[in-house]
Amino acid sequence: GTLPWNENGLNGILRFYKRVWDLVIGMPVTATTQKCLPLSERQAMVKKIIHKAIKKCTTDLEDLRFNTMIANGLMEPVNSLLAVWSADIATTSEGKEALDTLIRLIAPTAPHLAEELWERIGHKQSVTAATWPTYDEALTVDETITLVVQVNGKVRDRLVVDADIDQESAKSLALELPNILTHLEGKTIQREVFVPGRLLNLVVD
């Protein structure tokens, strides 16, 4: 038998391509508090966002993981860019590099859109003649993370800490949190479960 044609699945990708178009053409409308940050901070954020996108798209494309490439290598970065984007960002070298790179990244999965946008930003040759972007590994590493702090497996608080924090440092900071101290009152820590970059679980009796 034949399956009925359903266009509902196209709506999500259509909305995404509309966001890409608005970003490049200069009509982003997302209102966020991040746009109130100083320009220099947003420039640094844009650079990290785009280098993470290059890395994700490059590795997923090589491994033929097209779904995650689109979802995590393109959609997430575009949403992150829109959250900090404004007219002043668009005129900076970081902003111009971000748009130039983004178009090259979408070219394998949306060649017609990429070709149109590539011409719109001033390129004369086809986007297919452009080199694939490269990333700086240092810019793909998060400097800080949000570490979940649990007591007996239940989330009791969170810490914003350096990405490379060790177990002892994480424990010391956790023991300064009022909510954690409340749940430890009258109890003894039997052991700790530390998952770097994710969580610290204090197991008590």
From TrEMBL:
Residues annotated as domain Methionyl/Valyl/Leucyl/Isoleucyl-tRNA synthetase anticodon-binding? 50-166
- Keyword Nucleotide-binding assigned to the entry: answer is yes
What UniProt keywords apply to this chain's record, in alphabetical order?
A: Aminoacyl-tRNA synthetase, ATP-binding, Ligase, Nucleotide-binding, Protein biosynthesis
Query: Does Signal count among this protein's keywords?
Result: no
Biological processes, Gene Ontology terms? leucyl-tRNA aminoacylation
Catalytic reactions on record: tRNA(Leu) + L-leucine + ATP = L-leucyl-tRNA(Leu) + AMP + diphosphate
**What's this protein's family per the entry?**
Belongs to the class-I aminoacyl-tRNA synthetase family.
Protein's name in the database: leucine--tRNA ligase
Instruction: Name the source organism.
Output: marine metagenome
The record lists the lineage as:
unclassified sequences, metagenomes, ecological metagenomes
